[in-house]
């Protein structure tokens, strides 16, 4: 059983819609990461969170440590946001454990 | 700053062969972690190198080995390749600060195909 669960697995939205991706984890962590992966494989780090909320442009990430849950929101989605979004947690010494990813497709 | 660089970008090998993948970490980073990502799945942790030693290891057989050099660059070696080793191999670098809580930067990956 993966200790990091993401939902949904796949998501299709129309341009302009608000998108939410959820991530739950089962044990205590030191940090949670939201990552973006485009076709071809390269991964870009979007956020690293240990508490509260962070915002970067149209992206917002929140984390609730007590509930062991995090969300990634994309406001005013755009086709260029189409990618796989991955939640990963750091347990110790920087080792990351990844969720399976959410495939997001934004149509014009 | 070139960020994390991996080489080669693509590789095709035959079953039973050996392969070496390379990673140069982001400038200033001292820790390199390797991950295997099979198609349609999230990355799986292989191992982590810090101070030229393997510090942590995931659930991978001994066929997977690595090395870290004094300049912090790293190699991943896989012996006796199996078809199931076909995957995207990702390298991530970080700075092992207090508590090990540091942002990771990823390379573009090496796509290994075993035929």
Task: Describe the secondary structure blueprint for this structure.
The complex is a heterodimer of chains A (108) and B (115).
Chain A: E1 4-7, E2 10-14, E3 19-25, E4 31-37, E5 43-49, E6 52-56, E7 59-64, E8 69-74, E9 83-90, E10 96-98, E11 102-107
Parallel strand pairs in A: 2-11
Antiparallel strand pairs in A: 1-3, 3-8, 4-5, 4-9, 6-7, 7-8, 9-10, 9-11
Chain B: E1 5-7, E2 10-13, E3 19-24, E4 31-37, E5 44-50, E6 53-57, E7 64-68, E8 74-78, E9 87-94, E10 105-106, E11 110-114
Parallel strand pairs in B: 2-11
Antiparallel strand pairs in B: 1-3, 3-8, 4-5, 4-9, 5-6, 7-8, 9-10, 9-11
How would you characterize this protein structure?
The complex is a heterodimer of chains A (108) and B (115). Chain A contains no helices and eleven strands. By secondary structure, chain A is mostly beta strands. Chain A is globular, with a radius of gyration of 13 Å. The N and C termini of chain A lie far apart (37 Å). Chain B is mostly beta strands and 115 residues long. Chain B has no helices and eleven strands. In chain B, the strands form two sheets. In chain B, strands 2, 4, 5, 6, 9, 10 and 11 form a seven-stranded mixed sheet that branches. A four-stranded antiparallel sheet of chain B has the order 1-3-8-7, with no helix packed on it. Classes of the chains: A mainly beta (108), B mainly beta (115). At the A-B interface, strand 4, strand 5, strand 9 and strand 10 of A face strand 4, strand 5, strand 9 and strand 10 of B.
């Amino acid at each position: 059983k993966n200790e990091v669960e993401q939902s949904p697995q796949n998501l299709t939205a129309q341009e302009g819609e608000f998108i939410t991706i959820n991530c739950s984890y089962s044990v205590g962590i030191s940090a949670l990461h939201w990552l973006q992966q485009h076709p071809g494989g390269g991964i870009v780090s979007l956020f690293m969170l240990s508490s509260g909320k962070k915002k970067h442009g149209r992206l917002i990430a929140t984390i609730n440590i007590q509930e062991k849950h995090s969300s990634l929101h994309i406001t005013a989605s755009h086709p260029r946001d189409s990618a796989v979004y991955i939640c990963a947690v750091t347990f110790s010494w920087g080792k990351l454990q990844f969720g399976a990813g959410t495939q997001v497709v934004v149509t014009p | 700053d070139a960020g994390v660089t991996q080489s080669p970008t693509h590789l095709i090998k035959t079953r039973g062969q050996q392969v070496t993948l390379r990673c140069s970490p982001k400038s200033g980073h001292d820790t390199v972690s390797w991950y295997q990502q099979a198609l349609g799945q999230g990355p799986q942790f292989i191992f982590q190198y810090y101070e030229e030693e393997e510090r942590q290891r995931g659930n991978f057989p001994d066929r997977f080995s690595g090395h870290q050099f004094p300049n912090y660059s790293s190699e991943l070696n896989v012996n006796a390749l199996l078809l199931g080793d076909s995957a995207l191999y990702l390298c991530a670098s970080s700075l092992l600060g207090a508590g090990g809580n540091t942002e990771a930067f990823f390379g573009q990956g090496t796509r290994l195909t075993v035929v």
